[in-house]
Amino acid sequence: MRRAHLLGLGFMTPALIIVFLFFLAPVVLTAVFSFTSMSSGTGISGGAYEINEQTLRSLTDRGFPKAKSEKLGHDLYRIGEEGLGAVEADFGKAFADEIRAELSGELFEGRRDLERELKKLRSRPRSIRDLKKAADLFKRSVLNTRFESETAFLDGVGETGVELTADDQAVLVKTAYTGWSWTTANYELITSMASTWRAAKNTAFYVLLTLSFNVGFGLFLAITTFYLPKGQAAIFRAIWILPRILPPVLYVMMWKWLTWDTGFLSIFLSNFGVEPRNWMLNSDINAWVCIVLINGFVGASLGMILFSSALRAIPPSMLAASEVDGANRWQQIRHILLPQLQWPILFTTSYQTLSLLTSFDYIYLSTDGGPGRSTEVWALYTFHTALNNYGGVLQYGLGAALALVLVVIGIAASLFYLRLFKFNELVSQPRIEQ
Amino acid sequence: MRILLDQFTKTFGATTVIDKMSLDIESGEMLALLGPSGCGKSTTLFAICGIHRMNGGRLLFGERDVTHLPSQMRNVGVVFQNYALYPHMNAFDNIAFPLMIRKMAKPEIERKVLAIAELVHIEGLLKRKPAQLSGGQQQRVALARALVREPDILLLDEPLANLDAKLRLEMRSEIRRIQQETGISAVLVTHDQVEAMSMADRIAIMDQGQIVQLAAPKDMYDEPVTDFVASFLGNPPIAFLQGTVEGKTIRLENSDIVLPLDAQAAKQGNGTPIRIGVRPEHFQPEHPVKISGKISFIEEQGREELFDVTLSNGMRLRSVQANGGAFRLGDEVSWGLAADKVLTFDPSGRRI
Amino acid sequence: MSSNFRSWPMTLLLGFLSLPIIVMMVYLFVDTVTDTTAGSLIPDRFTLEHWRFLFDAPQAGRSNIWSVTLNTFIFACSTSAIVVMTSLTSGYALSRLNMPYRRLLLGGVLTLHAFPTVTLIISIFLMLQMTGLYNSLLGVILVKTALELPLGIWVMKGFYDTVPWEIEMAGLTDGASRFTVWRRLVLPQVHPGLAALGLFSFLAAWSEYILPQVLAPDGASQVLATYLQNLIKDDRAPDFNMFKSVGLFYAMPVMIIYLIFNQKLMNIYGGGTKG
Fold first, then answer.
1. What is the ipTM of this complex?
2. Are A134 and A156 in contact (CB under 8 A)?
3. Which CATH number fits domain C65-272: 1.10.287.40, 3.30.230.10, 1.10.3720.10, 3.90.190.20?
């Protein structure tokens, strides 16, 4: 490898590391997570095995013999090496040795039984309290104890002396497992749930409307400001760039001020006898109008910038010539301005399709999918499912599956753009061959 | 220093741009690489300075084989077409840059920069940024930067192309003067034959990746080896006539014009097609081998006049005359060729 | 543009269409220094009490505005710095250096540039939780940097592309190594691009809401975006005058930077295009 190769790769390294960690890894992990049942209930680190009151209840529901589950709930006292070690540490070797000699391997159903036996020993501690303490050291309970592996769990259960059939064991292990597991249920859910389809429909509707608004209004702004005197054009452009540059939180807050029931529009219109209402959320139609305008103003700003700079590239002599030739304004727009904008329009359209498809921040900040879930688009639905669900559990696995759909669309679209915008022509060979 | 390019081959992807070209630049000479764009002259220059790698052949600087050395270790000085001055440095720092890279001591750098600045006449401009310099001044700074490290060879890539006509004339002689004063071997890449003729000791004329002819300007002008060379040199350019050998004469195509050019005709067998090249200065009223036609174009150039004369078969000859004021457009004239100066070529373009 | 056509009807139309934005902007400023209620067009008395939040001790459960501002500042500056430094080298490599997989890398950057990054937020959220970077400003900085990086590299590559090759060739024949050529000769030519990209990624991070909200919702690493949104969500009876004061305080750097560097930033909006 030549030295410039090393320099090049060296120069790329920081970027490659970041890209690997925050693009490639997440893409792969999204796919991986989508096949799990991860949720805020299961946690994300590997699971553990634990029997608690709730487990016991659901065990009975699943046909686990009641007698056995009751027994699992009780404390047991078994004289084993572990307990003996603890006794030796706390109460001396003599006492421990004596217990080992007299009681090794025995099992007691209650503490009282064990205490009675201990009292018989010569080297026992004098105080009753210490005796109870010593007895406690032999307590073995599976209730509320975390076992990190299945074998440890079954060993623990075995110590209680509960006899398990193979069926019992399977039910017990499954019920006691607190972590996530591998599953394809997420994809079955996606195709079967009505809310998914509604989200998909909302998304299509949202992208179509907003995109038309973005491009149409962006064009309108670019062309009108193009014809205005310089000063005026600059003012209007400055106004219309604001939605794009203001932080989304502030921008949406201003819309809320405009549209809420105590906001500008309500109170201003009440002067004319219109009843105050929440113009953003009081009906589905209003919510959609707001969403399209909020996103559309931002998108139109961008369109305006791109289109305006394309229009500036038109040589003034060409416009003058068309006017000399007698073109009216509409003909000039139709035959001179629009052809110049062909490429930027294609670019904006394709680019914004993808970003609208996956963006949700402005919707999240404004209607949050409401009223009801009538403006919940796919990306927001994904977000709600996995990360921002007030109602209940955050379903990471299902969310990841929903996100993966977007990831796949994103990759496909990006590759398509590479073709569309002639990537091959962008790659020119370096002119220095070192 | 003598520079030897031996069997140089260059490919870009699957296309071979230059195939086994050899070139010998003598110590202290200025050699011009002349040719139309795309002929491979810039590629050759980039190979000599090490920007491009050679796909075959050797490159020797004196006795030193530099074929596989990177640019940085070759000790070449290059003046680029757009000068490539470093815009953020003033003229002094630009010139000092190669020395600074070599970690030369400050006083030494200063001494050398001042000396070279004096040679190229920019002593007063050293504090200026490139943007504050005129084209000619930038050119001088670029020359100074290329020369200050005392390179083995000076490479000039279309050095005059970005200058206006008047400056071009001035810089032409300036570059030549500086090159001769320093006694450095130099390669001048240009597509302008006037530049090559006026500045170079020898010209290598290139076409499609090959050197067609390598000779001193005067020799090349008088004795071109092909019609390509003949047409490339000279302004106004040479005119060509198609004909066939008939005994000791040459009959022009589609006509009954027969030229008694026995010296040229004798070299070829009867009936062979032949191409005659006539330079404008060799087609004059007083010359012996007469040929008649009608004046179809006159261009007044002040000091002299340029005539196009169309023959009866539609072929055209050109003539440059110092004071031909008497002729008018459309005049029938019968002017003569200088028989011993006429150049003849076979159908493949080779000189007979 | 062209004097052959009348322009006042268009001015009128545009003015009318711009009303929502004009109204919102005007009252954004007015409401922070008056007690004007929404809907009454005439501002009433002048007051600075909506700006109390800057000096009062924060209410229970809220963070101190200055520590939040500091967080935001750290977030935006670090993001900007890392994006700029990383793009500086990668952009050059992609623009100028021969290296293996150059085509692939170039295509990769373009693909990522078009790639919708929000789709990755779930797995990033889980990754940060696993690595312990969850709820830390550092995590948010790294993620935001990564998301801004493809654009940064592409923009920087564009700026490098405009530097004449001959400057580098001259540098090489002058005896400088590729690295020296880059540092001493090429870097000074792309300063304007550097500044523009730095400002751009600063603004992008300054305005970012979703990432800090999801990846560091805790009080200690709160930024102005989440601070403001929490205010808005919290309040039963919205005090828009206060929201706007906080909002204006938050947006002030954005507006100032935009006012001063308008032209520079446009270069990137034009070439960059996200959203």
1. 0.87
2. no
3. 1.10.3720.10
